[in-house]
């Protein structure tokens, strides 16, 4: 897997994956909803796994912020999607759809953590995508993968910081290409 090129065209919106547990608690859901709303307010498209928890909260935030969200569902049934998505795409791939979520994104914001979230963080880092962690996993790897020299996701303390860091990283990647 190689780093995806940032969204095509000078006016194309950034696509930011918001990943996290499907069984997230109220604090994680509130953070994900704020992230979705803030991303929508900055013109970004929210990409997620399309189900509940963090995914539903981010999609709800994007909708409430006037933005767009795309859910890549693990199964083949569109009716399994959360009701806040703009577009629900069934993949029939189960957890393997995590790779599609990452591949569709220009950056990843992880809210909280679960094993599926960890897989998305790993795939994104392996692909060279910017990853921002808002709570949840702290991952140290054997090799630096960010300019700061830290090998894992960049930590953020607030939804505002997570969104600002993710969009700045996308902008930096766009200018470099």
TrEMBL record:
InterPro entries per the UniProt record, alphabetical: CHP00725, LDcluster4, LOG_family_nucleotidases
Region (Disordered): 140-160
NCBIfam families: TIGR00725 family protein (TIGR00725)
Protein name per UniProt: TIGR00725 family protein
Organism, scientific name: Kitasatospora paracochleata
Taxonomic lineage: Bacteria, Bacillati, Actinomycetota, Actinomycetes, Kitasatosporales
């Amino acid at each position: 897997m190689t780093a995806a090129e940032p969204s095509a065209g000078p006016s194309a919106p950034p696509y930011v994956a918001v990943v996290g547990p499907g069984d997230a608690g109220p604090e994680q859901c509130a953070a994900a909803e704020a992230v979705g709303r803030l991303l929508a307010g900055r013109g970004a498209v929210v990409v997620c796994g399309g189900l509940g928890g963090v995914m539903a909260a981010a999609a709800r935030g994007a909708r409430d912020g006037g933005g767009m969200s795309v859910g890549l569902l693990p199964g083949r049934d569109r009716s399994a999607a959360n009701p806040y998505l703009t577009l629900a795409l069934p993949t029939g791939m189960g957890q393997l759809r995590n790779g599609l979520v990452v591949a569709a994104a220009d950056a990843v914001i992880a809210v909280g953590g679960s094993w599926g979230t960890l897989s998305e963080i790993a795939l994104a880092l392996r692909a060279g995508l910017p990853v921002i962690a808002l709570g949840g996993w702290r991952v140290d790897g054997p090799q630096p993968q960010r300019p700061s020299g830290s090998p894992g996701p960049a930590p953020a303390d607030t939804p505002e910081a997570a969104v600002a860091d993710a969009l700045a990283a996308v902008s930096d990647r766009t200018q470099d290409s």
